[in-house]
Amino acid sequence: MSQFFQIHPETPQKRLINQAVEILRRGGVIIYPTDSAYAIGCQLDDKQAADRIKRIRRLDDKHNFTLVCRDLSDIGTYAKVDNTSYRLLKMFTPGPYTFIFNATSEVPRRLQHPKRRSIGLRVPDNAIVQALLGELGEPIMSSTMILPGEDQPMTDPEEMRDRLQHEVDLVIDGGFCGAEATTVVNMCDQIPEVTRVGKGDPTPFQS
Predict the structure, then answer these.
(1) Domain harbouring 186, CATH code
(2) Which of 4, 109, 118, 187 has the fewest CB atoms within 10 Å, i.e. the most exposed one?
(3) What is the pTM of this model?
(4) Average pLDDT over the chain, rounded to whole?
(5) Which residues does residue 42 pair with via DSSP β-bridges, in sequence order?
(6) Is residue 177 part of a domain?
(7) Is pLDDT of 151 > 90?
(8) Rounded to an integer, what distance in angstroms lies between the CA atom of residue 67 and that of residue 74?
(9) In this structure, how many other beta carbons lie within 10 angstroms of the beta carbon of residue 58?
(10) What is the pLDDT of residues 159-199, one digit of tens each?
(11) Range of 82's domain?
(12) pLDDT tens-digit profile of 79-132?
């Protein structure tokens, strides 16, 4: 039976944030709000928890997980970012974008794209996520909370609790945060390429 926390979207209660992070550290899988849609996530180096997410979402080994980061210093740890890319990131983070970069050796191979050795990274503009990441001290490995057979993210925390209470350890109710996935920008080559249009404005990355 999963736990259910109602956390204030602008002033997150520290006690509940601490409890949520403890659940992550104990190998838990959590559902939490971002600045575009709800996400499902776990600790970066927890293979068992990642496998649980794959089962819940019925993901194959080709799925690109995203590392949800607190700020650009995290991104520099896990991705190979040149000066031009860094300047772009400064303009568009935090925000509803996922950026695909070539991964550094800090990223476990099982999380990288099997052929391209890339990883998705993002910095959400959401107080609850920022509080979780600040307490955890590392990125959360995440995927958008979309159930198998659906093409839109789930939006109602009560429904998530009802449908997934035996499969996840915590659902965080942070209010309505949107029903649109992030815009995905591939930054592995010299020229940014928009590979999915979502909540973030794709125009600045299109030539």
Answers:
(1) 3.90.870.10
(2) 109
(3) 0.93
(4) 92
(5) 141
(6) yes
(7) no
(8) 9
(9) 10
(10) 999 999 999 999 999 999 888 889 999 999 878 999 999 99
(11) 3-201
(12) 999 998 999 999 999 999 999 999 888 887 777 776 778 899 999 999 999 999
